[in-house]
Amino acid sequence: MLAVHELSAHYGPVRAVDHVSLEVSAGSVTAVLGANGAGKTSLLRTITGLIPASAGRVIFEGEDITRRPVEEIVRRGLAHVPEGRGVIAELSVDENLRLGGLWRGRDAAPRKEIYELFPRLHDRRTQLASRLSGGERQMLSIGRALMGRPRALLLDEPSLGLAPLLVAQIMAMIRRLADTLDLAVLLVEQNARSALSVANRGVVLNLGRVVADEESHRLAADEGLRHAYLGF
Questions:
Q1: How far apart are CA 67 and CA 57, in angstroms?
Q2: pLDDT tens digits for 40-60?
Q3: What is the pLDDT of residue 225?
Q4: Average pLDDT of each block of 10 consecutive residues along the chain (232 residues)?
Q5: Residues 201-218: tens digit of each pLDDT
Q6: How many CB atoms lie within 10 A of CB 139?
Q7: What is the per-residue pLDDT for 83?
């Protein structure tokens, strides 16, 4: 579904992504883990074309999308939910969702489908996004991305700033979305324990390079690696 081969990207002279390779299949969750500055966000931004790749390739559903325009990548079905729950606070829940379907036009998912996935959003559909809780804003961010009927979903720190109970709910929701929609999910997280609990596979980055790529239960059981890179 989504394959990254020897991908590199730079911020000026600094190599933020350093020959990274990974794969995400449909219906699976791959967690990208590591400390602040490890290159996790830069990796997602390079995959979606927000940062130009200096080397390597991104293959999505058999097509090389490495240097395609961002809007074309979105139309092909690769959705990116950035860090910070970037909803438009001045718009209602329903209006935010409508924006998510603009790129796909008639191919956009009906809002009814999103409200069935997120009943809490349906209850608050006329409220301004500014009045939502942190967990609800995260649901809205993901729901807006799903309006484009993506085949792959890239999530950047969806648990950031949420209470532990909400983190568990968001992670369970991500797992459910992968299973029910057959999505390929690439999940960037600093909360390694939570991410590994729902992921099929984990990739650990350090200074832009892959230092581990294993099944999630093996990573969670590797005490030395956990202490060195994951903080638990």
A1: 9
A2: 999 999 999 999 999 999 999
A3: 84
A4: 96 93 97 93 96 97 94 92 85 93 71 92 95 93 92 94 90 95 95 94 96 94 84 77
A5: 999 999 999 999 999 999
A6: 26
A7: 85
Whole-angstrom distance, CA of residue 220 vs CA of residue 196: 7
In whole angstroms, what separates CA 79 from the centre of its chain? 8
- The whole-angstrom separation of Cα 135 and Cα 162 is 7
3-state SS of the chain is CEEEEEEEEEECCEEEEEEEEEEECCCCEEEEECCCCCCHHHHHHHHCCCCCCCEEEEEECCEECCCCCHHHHHHHCEEEECCCCCCCCCCEHHHHHHHHCHHHHHHCCCHHHHHHHCHHHHHCCCCEHHHCCHHHHHHHHHHHHHCCCCCEEEEECCCCCCCHHHHHHHHHHHHHHHHHHCCEEEEEECCHHHHHHHCCEEEEEECCEEEEEEEHHHHHHCHHHHHHHHCC
CB 158, CB 138: distance < 8 Å: yes
Q: Answer positive or negative: Cα dihedral of 77, 216, 38, 166.
A: positive
Instruction: Enter the tokens of residue 30.
Output: 């791959």
Query: Tokens representing 167?
Result: 């983190």
